[in-house]
Amino acid sequence: MNPTPAQLKKLTAVARQAAGRAYAPYSKFPVGAAVLTTTGKIYAGCNVENASYGLTNCAERTAIFTAVAAGEKNLRLRCVVVYTPTAGATAPCGACRQVIYEFGPAARVLSCCDSRERIDVSIDALLPGAFGPHDLA
Ligand code: THU
């Protein structure tokens, strides 16, 4: 089921606020994310970088891991919103696409920024033919 316009507005505001909490001293590229579960809950995340660059955790994965850590047992994502304070919208990286797919094989992924540019697609379009839990069943 698609998020309502009110939910989308809320998700965008939450993602934007989360970007303000990013720890991105190396890239100076703050990112915020908000995920909406099928039960209507919203979780926020930001990117968290490290001096050992490869340990960086993206905003999308932070939001999803936060939901799991908060006790979401059968987490199902309805929508993932990504916000960057840039002129262009930023698509999730490959690692985040895989993690989004794990919990939201039908999720909508919406990237927004400081212009009217948007990326608004399904995870299936971002990660066609994905490997997932079904492969291990
Ligand atoms: N980043 C995210 O948090 N999400 C994305 O969708 C793309 C990239 C972060 C990782 C790193 O901290 C910074 O952006 C630059 O790659």
Number of strands: 5
Q: Quick one: biggest sheet?
A: 5 strands, mixed
Compute the average pLDDT: 98
| Total discrete domains | 1
The SSE string, one letter per element, is HEEHEHEEHH
Count of alpha and pi helical runs: 5
Unreliable residue stretches: none
CATH topology: Cytidine Deaminase, domain 2
Q: Which word captures the global form?
A: globular
Rg, rounded, reads 14 Å
CATH class: Alpha Beta
Helix and strand composition category: alpha+beta
CATH superfamily: Cytidine Deaminase, domain 2
Q: Whole-Å distance between the termini?
A: 25 Å
What would CATH call the architecture? 3-Layer(aba) Sandwich
Give your account of this protein's structure.
There is one protein chain. The protein is α+β, with helices and mostly antiparallel strands and 137 residues long. The chain has one domain (5-135): Cytidine Deaminase, domain 2 (3-Layer(aba) Sandwich). 32% of the residues lie in helices and 20% in strands. The chain is built from 5 helices and 5 strands. It has helices spanning 5-19, 59-69, 94-103, 123-126, 133-136; strands at residues 32-37, 42-46, 77-83, 108-112, 118-122. A 5-stranded mixed β-sheet has the order 2-1-3-4-5. A hairpin with a 4-residue loop joins strand 1 and strand 2 (42-46). The longest helix has 15 residues, at 5-19. It is globular and about 40 Å long. It starts with a helix and ends with a helix. Tetrahydrodeoxyuridine is lined by residues 24, 27, 29, 31, 47, 49, 56, 58-60, 82, 90, 92-93, 96.
